[in-house]
Amino acid sequence: MSLKQVYITDTSTFFPNEPISNDEMEDYLGYINGKPSKAKRIVLRNNGIKRRFYALTKDGKPTHTNAQMTALAVRSLFKNDPEKLKSLELLSCGTSSPDQMMPSHAVMVHGWLPETNGVEVVSPSGVCCAGMHAFKYAYMSIKTGDKQNAVATGSERMSASLLSRAFEDEVQKLIQLEENPYIGFEKEFLRWMLSDGAAAFFMSDKKNDTGLSLRVEWIEAVSYANKMEACMYMGSEKLADGTLKSYLDYPPHEMLEHSVLSIKQDVKLLSENIVPLGGIGLKAALDKHGVKSEEVDYFLPHMSSEFFKDKIFTKLIENGTGIPYDKWFVNLSQVGNVGAASVYFMVDELFHSGKLKVGDKILLLVPESSRFSYVYSLLTVV
């Protein structure tokens, strides 16, 4: 069987509502226990995010579902043309924040695209890597000749999980116990990190007749969960032995009291491991494919926070895979951390920037701290 070339021929994004500044965040998310956050200033100072997007009104009402945002990003690829939408063969949608546990995210997105035909859909789960797994499934489907075209997406709607009401029961319980009426830092930390939005790639076995395309050279993924405990989790609580207790094993009132359905992160475990493990995986991927880091023209690392920028830079040099800052292309400060969609936003901005020229090589790095997984990919402008 001869394998086909795979190209990204167009990209699109959808951001809900107007951008929200750092000063406005609690106007949308609400004040826990009626008081401004003590941790907010510290977290924002380190993460470098200046604005983000929420699928919310100021009174906390949703304006879009995750599936709706994703469908709008897909529509943009096809210019809302019903006939073009009928040409779609595969819809591969990654997210860590589906609107429901069942049905799957991708079938809900498909439901918002009634002009399409009956097509294959797939919904990779996970956190930040979910968008890249969706990308890889689409890539492999075209590479093997199973499909001629596909749309891969990454999206998040985390704001609904960050509203103050999600933590009020826990805070009230602490007040009753005469304990510190503030939620733990592992829960509050992510309130100031996450953002909403959706993005999509149109992928094909044919490059554009006019204009540039991105040829997908390879995609490599690795998990270190065999030796690392969970770092970011939702719908569970981390126990003293490092294991997770599922929301299914809590009575309903305890789920509320402990905000079990809120997203949490073990910040110490994150800071000690996310960069070193990612460096190991990147070196292995480059070595496997015989690529030297100096051949890279644009480096697109997904970072949850600019706190990690210098650490990544230094680790790459230590591993013999150094990439100078003038080759980095990131937009975290302007769009926020949108998990599974973040790398799509970077690729989209670069693709439409007018900066690219034939032959440029673009290296993608996406880490996932949930239990330390990583996906890497190399694209060539053609």
Plain-language structure description:
- The protein has helices at residues 25-29, 40-47, 66-77, 82-85, 105-111, 129-143, 159-162, 168-176, 185-188, 252-257, 267-288, 309-318, 332-335, 342-351, and strands at 7-14, 20-21, 51-52, 90-95, 120-122, 149-156, 197-204, 214-223, 232-234, 236-238, 244-246, 263-265, 298-301, 361-368, 373-381.
- By secondary structure, the protein is an alpha+beta fold.
- It folds into 2 domains: 7-213, 3-Layer(aba) Sandwich (Peroxisomal Thiolase, Chain A, domain 1), CATH 3.40.47; 216-222 and 266-381, Thiolase/Chalcone synthase (Peroxisomal Thiolase, Chain A, domain 1, 3-Layer(aba) Sandwich).
- The chain has a 9-stranded mixed β-sheet with strand order 5-4-6-7-1-8-15-14-13, sandwiched between helices.
- Helix 3 (66-77) packs across helix 5 (105-111) and helix 11 packs across helix 12.
Largest sheet: 9 strands, mixed
N- and C-termini, Cα separation: 24 Å
CATH fold field value of the largest domain: Peroxisomal Thiolase, Chain A, domain 1
The structure class reads alpha+beta
Mean pLDDT: 93
| Strands in their spatial order, largest beta sheet | 5-4-6-7-1-8-15-14-13
Instruction: Report the CATH architecture of the largest domain.
Output: 3-Layer(aba) Sandwich
- Give the CA-based shape: globular
Key terms:
382 residues, alpha+beta, Peroxisomal Thiolase, Chain A, domain 1, 9-stranded mixed sheet, two-stranded antiparallel ribbon, 14 helices, 15 strands, globular
